[in-house]
Amino acid sequence: MKPNSKIMIIYASFGDGHIKAARALLESFTALGYNNIQLIDLLELTHPRINFASRWLYLKSSSYAPKGYGWFYTLTNSTKQSRVSNHIYHSFGKKKMLEEWNSEKPELIIHTFPYLTADELKFQSGQGVPTLTVITDYVLHSRWLHENTSHYCVGSDTIKAQMLAAGVPEHKISVTGIPVHSKFFDKEDKAAICDIWGFEPDRSRVLLMAGAYGVQRSLKLMISTVREETTSDLIVVCGKNKKLRKRLEREYYNEKRIHVIGYTDKVHELMTISDCLISKAGGITLTEALVKNLPTIVFQPIPGQEEGNAQFLSGLGVLGIANDKYSLTRELYNALNLNRNRNMKQASASVCFKQSSMRIVEEALKLTGLVEKGSEWTVNERKAAQIHA
Hints:
single chain, alpha/beta, six-stranded parallel sheet, 13% strand, globular, disordered C terminus
């Protein structure tokens, strides 16, 4: 594959994780000299009204009717589903995808969201463009699986085992870790970052992420628990929810320990200067925290993939799960306690893959024939990988 070869990365704007995964891969491809990369929000491009309605339903159901969302997630998670239902699900955007396919002639297509339209087109057209699916959770859902997928990159050996049990051939699966941007791997000066943000460098800080759209449940309970049960400062990131940010700014205007922030692309800096993270259990956010070696608490995980992510990582001792004020207080003590904190950091090494996005790009290039298994990269490619290591 030549540096100007076309590569398509298909994502969806359900939350912020899938686009962040796509951008992490874009960065790694660019570091290796591949500049003809197209990121496509396929459902938004082809069916904007359906996309808006689906996103609205996802955000509302996961926030205000989590049990219903979990029921639907479980109902649709079966490796024995009808081939007809999978045809329908993975056919969203098929016409537009075919147009892009014929006009752009990509040499590689990557999915970071389980709308596997390119794989469905391969079933109908017989075209041989390699496709790579990057699973961005630590729990498997059958929507990620398609018989025409050329290769999968996954975040853990557990996911691989589940896929093998579902009948996916072992040679199609690589355990690479979940992709995050290289800036999360950078060693940063904590004092310098505190100076930039206006924080006191010697203070303990808890970072509370409300999600990209600021729909975290029980936000007020979490804030009051940190304020009442710890001496730490609290940084609340409201995401794109401007109303939430303004409301919290008004409510905590006189609280010197509480700092309210809107959407930011500097989360890596906030994680660097924090001692603990309270977050929803999105696969990308949790992986970013793992990379930053930041003790994490998931509060009231949403049934479905987020609950699965939290339970998997909790089982490894990487994070704590809280469902009420009492358990949140306990987990805050564990995360901020030096010895417990050290144990959580040590446990994270078991599932944290260094430079996962570059590993995924290497697997992608193997699919195109540029890098054969067991062969060496070119000198420039090796240098780029080392720079990001």
